[in-house]
C-alpha cells in the first residue's frame, strides 16, 4: 500500500518569516508555487505562499474561515441591533491587526468599560444639573423676586460648586491612589479578623501574603481565599474584572515570636512581591477573662511574646524593608483594650501589651519622621472572634450583643481606609463615637443579636455568612445610590437648602406667635 505524505503549511506564518536555508543543499527557488524543487537532483526546494489550501473534503480553508466569520458577525448584528453595530465599529478601530481570541476578548472588555464609564459620567452630569435646577427654582420662587435674595441664592450655589470641586479633586486623587494593586502582608491571617482583612484586600485587587504558625492552616486559607477570588472574578465585569485579575494570595508559616521566622517572612515578601505597601501586625492572643493570679507562667509568656514582642519584631523588619524600597510603605499595629492606658480588669496581661504598643507607636513616629515609612494604628473594636470569646461568660456575651460585630463587617470598613492612608500617625478606628452612641441608643433592639440568654451563639457559620456577605457586596445599596451624585451636587443642595430655610424663616417670622 502506498503511503501518502501530506504537508500542511499555514499562510499566516509564512507572511511573517522569509524562507530560510533549512539544511545543507537547500535554498530558495524564484519560481512561484507551493512546493518547488530545484534541479534534477532535487537538492533544493522552496515553500511559497499560495492563495488558499484545500481541506480533505476539498474545501477552501481560508474562504471557509472568512465565510464563518461573516456569518457570525451578521448573526450578532441581528441579535443585538444598534448596540452591537456600535461595538463592532469601535472594535474595528481597536483591533487593527489583532487576530487572537484573547486579544479580541480583552478589547471587548476594554470597550465595554469605556462605554460604561462614559455613560456613568453623563448620568452624573444629568443628575447634577437636574438637582441644582430644582433647588434653584424652589429658591427663586421663595425669594418672591427679591433681587438681593436672588443674588444670595446664586452666590450660595457658586460657593457650593467651588467647595465641592475642591473636595471632589481630593477624592479623585484618593481614587487614583486606590486604583493600583497593593502588596500586603498580614500576620495572624488564617482565621478571624486577619482572614477577613486578607479576603477584603484580595477582592480589592491586591496581592496578599497570609501567615500563621501552622503550615496546614496557611495552605487551607490560601485555597479558601482563592475560591473567593474565583467567585469574585466570575461575577465581575469591566474595570472590576481587570482589577481582580491582578490579585493573588500566597502564604508562608511564621511564628512572630521567633526573630528568624520574621526575617524569613520579610525576605519572602520581597522575593514574591518586590516591595511591601502595607504590613499589618494582626497576630495576637488572649487566654480568657480571669484575674492575674489565675494566669500561668506559660500563659503570660505567650500573650506578651505574641502581642508585644511579635509586633516589635515584625515592625522592625517592615521598617528595614520599607526604608530601602522606592515606594512608601505603611505599618499598622492593632489597638485593643488598654491601648489608651485605661485599666483592663480580668485581662491585665493583654491590656498591658496593647498599652506597650501605643508607646511603641509614639516612639516610631519620631524615629521614622523623615523617612517614607508610615506608622499607624488600626482599632477594630470588639470583633466576634475566638480571641474575644475565649473564656467569656454569659454576662460578657450579653454585652457582646450590643457592641460586637462580625469580622467581615469590620474588615469591609477598615480595608478601604487602610488602602488610601497617607502620611504617618493615622488612627483608623471602626468603633467610632457615633457608632458607640448608636449602639447604646439601640441597645434594647440588639438583645439576642449574636447570643441567646444562655450564651449560645445565634449567628451563622462562616460559610453561610460569606455567602450572604457576597450578595450584600453585589447589591445596589442606598450608599451606592448617594455616590451617583457628585460632590458638587451635595454641597450645592446643602448650601441652597440653608438659604431656602433662611428665606422661609424670614418670610414667616413676623407671623409666628410670640414674635
TrEMBL record:
<keyword id="KW-0812">Transmembrane</keyword>
<keyword id="KW-0881">Chlorophyll catabolism</keyword>
<comment type="similarity">
    <text>Belongs to the short-chain dehydrogenases/reductases (SDR) family.</text>
</comment>
<feature type="transmembrane region" description="Helical">
    <location>
        <begin position="490"/>
        <end position="512"/>
    </location>
</feature>
<protein>
    <recommendedName>
        <fullName>chlorophyll(ide) b reductase</fullName>
        <ecNumber>1.1.1.294</ecNumber>
    </recommendedName>
</protein>
<keyword id="KW-0793">Thylakoid</keyword>
<keyword id="KW-0150">Chloroplast</keyword>
<keyword id="KW-0472">Membrane</keyword>
<dbReference type="GO" id="GO:0015996">
    <property type="term" value="P:chlorophyll catabolic process"/>
</dbReference>
<keyword id="KW-0934">Plastid</keyword>
<feature type="transmembrane region" description="Helical">
    <location>
        <begin position="122"/>
        <end position="140"/>
    </location>
</feature>
<dbReference type="InterPro" id="IPR052625">
    <property type="entry name" value="Chl_b_Red"/>
</dbReference>
<feature type="transmembrane region" description="Helical">
    <location>
        <begin position="152"/>
        <end position="173"/>
    </location>
</feature>
<dbReference type="GO" id="GO:0034256">
    <property type="term" value="F:chlorophyll(ide) b reductase activity"/>
</dbReference>
<dbReference type="GO" id="GO:0010304">
    <property type="term" value="P:PSII associated light-harvesting complex II catabolic process"/>
</dbReference>
<keyword id="KW-0560">Oxidoreductase</keyword>
<dbReference type="GO" id="GO:0009535">
    <property type="term" value="C:chloroplast thylakoid membrane"/>
</dbReference>
<dbReference type="InterPro" id="IPR036291">
    <property type="entry name" value="NAD(P)-bd_dom_sf"/>
</dbReference>
<dbReference type="Pfam" id="PF00106">
    <property type="entry name" value="adh_short"/>
</dbReference>
<keyword id="KW-1133">Transmembrane helix</keyword>
<dbReference type="InterPro" id="IPR002347">
    <property type="entry name" value="SDR_fam"/>
</dbReference>
<keyword id="KW-0520">NAD</keyword>
<keyword id="KW-0809">Transit peptide</keyword>
Amino acid at each position: 500500500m502506498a503511503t501518502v505524505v501530506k504537508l500542511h503549511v499555514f499562510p499566516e506564518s509564512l507572511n511573517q518569516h522569509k524562507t530560510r536555508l533549512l539544511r545543507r543543499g537547500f535554498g530558495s527557488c524564484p519560481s512561484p508555487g507551493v512546493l518547488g524543487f530545484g534541479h534534477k537532483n532535487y537538492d533544493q526546494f522552496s515553500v511559497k505562499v499560495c492563495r488558499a489550501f484545500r481541506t480533505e473534503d476539498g474545501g477552501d480553508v481560508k474562504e471557509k474561515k472568512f465565510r464563518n466569520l461573516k456569518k457570525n458577525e451578521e448573526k450578532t448584528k441581528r441579535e443585538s441591533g444598534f448596540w452591537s453595530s456600535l461595538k463592532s465599529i469601535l472594535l474595528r478601530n481597536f483591533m487593527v491587526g489583532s487576530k487572537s481570541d484573547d486579544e479580541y476578548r480583552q478589547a471587548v472588555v476594554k470597550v465595554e468599560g469605556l462605554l460604561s464609564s462614559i455613560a456613568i459620567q453623563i448620568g452624573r452630569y444629568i443628575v447634577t444639573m437636574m438637582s441644582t435646577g430644582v433647588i434653584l427654582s424652589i429658591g427663586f420662587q421663595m425669594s418672591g423676586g427679591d433681587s438681593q435674595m436672588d443674588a444670595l441664592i446664586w452666590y450660595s450655589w457658586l460657593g457650593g460648586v467651588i467647595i465641592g470641586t475642591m473636595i471632589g479633586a481630593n477624592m479623585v486623587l484618593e481614587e487614583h491612589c486606590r486604583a493600583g494593586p497593593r502588596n500586603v502582608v498580614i500576620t495572624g491571617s488564617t482565621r478571624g479578623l486577619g482572614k477577613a482583612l486578607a479576603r477584603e484586600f484580595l477582592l480589592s485587587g491586591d496581592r496578599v501574603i497570609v501567615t500563621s504558625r501552622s503550615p496546614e492552616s496557611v495552605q487551607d486559607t490560601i485555597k479558601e481565599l482563592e475560591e473567593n477570588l474565583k467567585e469574585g472574578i466570575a461575577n465581575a465585569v469591566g474595570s472590576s474584572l481587570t482589577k481582580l485579575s491582578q490579585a493573588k494570595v500566597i502564604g508562608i508559616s511564621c511564628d512572630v515570636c521567633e526573630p528568624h521566622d520574621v526575617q524569613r517572612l520579610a525576605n519572602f515578601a520581597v522575593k514574591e512581591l518586590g516591595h511591601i505597601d502595607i504590613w499589618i501586625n494582626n497576630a495576637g492572643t488572649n487566654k480568657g477573662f480571669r484575674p492575674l493570679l489565675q494566669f500561668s507562667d506559660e500563659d503570660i509568656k505567650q500573650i506578651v511574646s505574641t502581642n508585644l514582642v511579635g509586633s516589635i519584631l515584625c515592625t522592625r523588619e517592615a521598617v528595614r524593608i520599607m526604608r530601602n524600597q522606592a515606594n512608601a510603605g505603611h505599618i499598622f499595629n492593632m489597638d485593643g483594650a488598654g491601648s489608651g492606658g485605661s485599666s483592663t480588669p480580668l485581662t491585665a496581661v493583654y491590656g498591658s501589651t496593647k498599652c506597650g504598643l501605643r508607646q511603641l507607636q509614639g516612639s516610631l513616629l519620631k524615629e521614622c519622621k523623615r523617612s517614607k515609612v508610615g506608622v499607624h494604628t488600626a482599632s477594630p473594636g470588639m470583633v466576634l472572634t475566638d480571641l474575644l470569646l475565649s473564656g467569656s461568660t454569659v454576662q460578657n456575651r450579653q454585652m457582646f450583643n450590643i457592641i460586637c460585630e462580625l469580622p467581615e463587617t469590620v474588615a469591609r470598613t477598615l480595608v478601604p481606609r487602610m488602602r488610601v492612608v497617607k502620611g504617618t500617625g493615622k488612627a483608623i478606628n471602626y468603633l467610632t463615637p457615633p457608632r458607640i452612641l448608636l449602639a447604646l441608643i439601640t441597645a434594647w433592639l440588639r438583645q439576642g443579636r449574636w447570643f441567646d440568654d444562655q450564651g449560645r451563639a445565634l449567628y451563622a457559620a462562616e460559610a453561610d455568612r460569606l455567602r450572604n456577605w457576597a450578595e450584600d457586596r453585589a447589591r445596589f445599596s442606598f450608599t451606592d445610590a448617594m455616590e451617583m451624585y457628585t460632590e458638587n451636587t451635595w454641597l450645592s443642595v446643602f448650601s441652597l437648602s440653608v438659604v431656602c430655610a433662611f428665606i422661609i424663616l424670614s418670610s414667616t417670622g413676623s407671623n409666628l406667635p410670640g414674635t
